[in-house]
Amino acid sequence: MPRVKQICCIGAGYVGGPTCAVIALKCPHIRVTIVDLNQARIDAWNSLDFNLPIYEPADLIFVSVNTPTKKSGVGAGFAADLNYPTATSSKIVVEKSTVPCRTAESMRTILEANSKPNARFDILSNPEFLAEGTAIKDLFAPDRVLIGSLQTQEGKEACEALCEVYRNWVPKEKILTVGLWSSELSKLAANAMLAQRISSINALSAICEATGANIAEVAHSIGQDSRIGPKFLRASVGFGGSCFQKDILNLVYLSESLNLKEVAEYWKQVVTMNEYQKRRFSKRVVDTLFNTITGKRIAVLGFAFKADTGDTRESAAITLIRDFQQEKAIVNIYDPQVEQDQIWTDLNEASPDVPLATIQRQVFICSSALEACRNAEAVVIATEWAEFKTIDWEAVYAGMNKPAFVFDGRLLVDADKLRSIGFKVTVIGRGERL
Q1: Using the 8-state DSSP alphabet, how is residue 98 labeled?
Q2: How far is residue 10's CA from residue 6's CA, in Å, rounded to a whole number?
Q3: 187 strand-pairing partners
């Protein structure tokens, strides 16, 4: 297999863009081209006078496109919705997107059926393990780089060609080579295990609230066990993002397809618990505000699914706001990164039977946390933005209706300090019993 000299990445989003930017930086001898159907996305990556070529030859192609859950047909709500490119000459094709196990088999079939005679395709799986907000850091110093290939001579040669690219900056011992199907399954398994930890600690947070225990203390205690460790043990209003729920549902669909009913039910419960956590939190807001929030103003701080990103996919805030809308509350929203158009799109999709004009009479987007909290009965912290720790809470209290409530869904604020100001504070995973 000749050395890779040119790479084409299909998809300039959260995975393709950062990945290829780092490859271009670390491998100046390799020409890297990124293509995407989204013109606005391409414009964002290039200067105004750049003309994107229609065709760009490449030795290796990264497929870094979104793999949304199917909305109709067989597997709707669980299976991944997959579409593939075609090619005109022999290539190494690398799956970067998170895909169901044995997707490579389908990809090869489609490529060979739509390509010129004698064109050969070596399919590799190279899943990304990037966290939004730290993607470049994760690419510079990855925990591991996983590359899966068919265990044929051609497959191993293709795998070595990609390994050579990564060895320009990644230590050899951190590049793991495995079978193709193992690699595809590993990414689903990694996200499922991480989500499982979040749902587990969130389930325990419900017990803490009922018994008077403190979930932060419980999490710290069990995190000191070297067999468990402290990561992903922070209780919250629920996980979000583009990967966790989608990948778990893919795993559920795969298990059901293989007639592994009990396995499917096990992983489905992780998502069920996540949805329960969001419903439970919004109900606690209503219950605490004297069993009704009709006509009351709720300030929701944060709309992104987590801090340090503008991504709103599967954000817990969307569910909370939808629940508040259904209770006929007035909702003020502030997020330092999410664009207004994205907020309206998400809220409209969450309530498809409600006209956007109706939503906009009930929901207001604010330019600061202080503005969002003005004349509100309650503040709900939905995203763990650092700036929410340093808000002038005395000014917030002065501008709110009384009694003034704070509901911390991210274990972010100093509850005792806020209580000393005069707030009634409810923190997720903390009960009222002494």
Answers
A1: -
A2: 13
A3: none
214 Cα distance to chain centroid: 27
Catalytic residue among 95, 128, 184, 384: 128
Element at 323 (helix H, strand E): helix 316-326
Q: Is the Cβ–Cβ distance between 194 and 241 less than 8 Å?
A: no
| Residue of 399, 389, 387, 394 lying closest to 422 (CA atoms) | 394
Residue of 91, 187, 296, 306 marked catalytic = 187
Residue-wise over 54-67: b if at least 16 C-beta within 10 A, else e? eeeebbbbbbbbeb
Provide the whole-model pTM.
0.85
Q: How many CB atoms lie within 10 A of CB 167?
A: 16
**3-class secondary-structure state, position 56:** coil
Residues 6+ apart with CB under 8 A from 278: 237, 238, 316, 319, 320, 323
- Per 3-state DSSP, the chain is made up of helix, strand and coil in percentages (nearest 5) of 45, 15, 40
Contact yes or no for 7/92 (Cβ under 8 A): no
Query: What token pair was written down for 225?
Result: 């066990």
Tokens 């079978």 belong to which residue?
Answer: 179
Q: What is the largest CA-CA distance in the chain?
A: 76
**Could you give the C-alpha distances from 19 to 97, 166, 281, 318, 348, in angstroms and in order?**
12, 11, 37, 29, 32
Residue 353, pLDDT > 70, answer yes
Which is catalytic among the residues 243, 246, 327, 373?
243
Active site residue 128: yes
Q: Report DSSP letters for 355-381, one per residue.
A: -HHHHHHHEEE-SSHHHHHTT-SEEEE
At which residue do the structure tokens 């995190």 appear? 223
Over residues 328-352, mean pLDDT: 97
**What tokens appear for 46 in the block?**
């290039």
**Cis bond before residue 403 (omega within 30° of 0):** yes
Find tokens 């549902």 and name the residue: 249
Backbone angles phi, psi at 241, to 5 degrees: 95, 170
Is 132 one of the catalytic residues? no
- Please write the tens of the pLDDT for every residue from 230-250: 999 999 999 999 889 999 999
Name the one residue in this structure whose structure tokens are 């409530």: 405
- Which tokens in the block code for residue 254? 């795969």
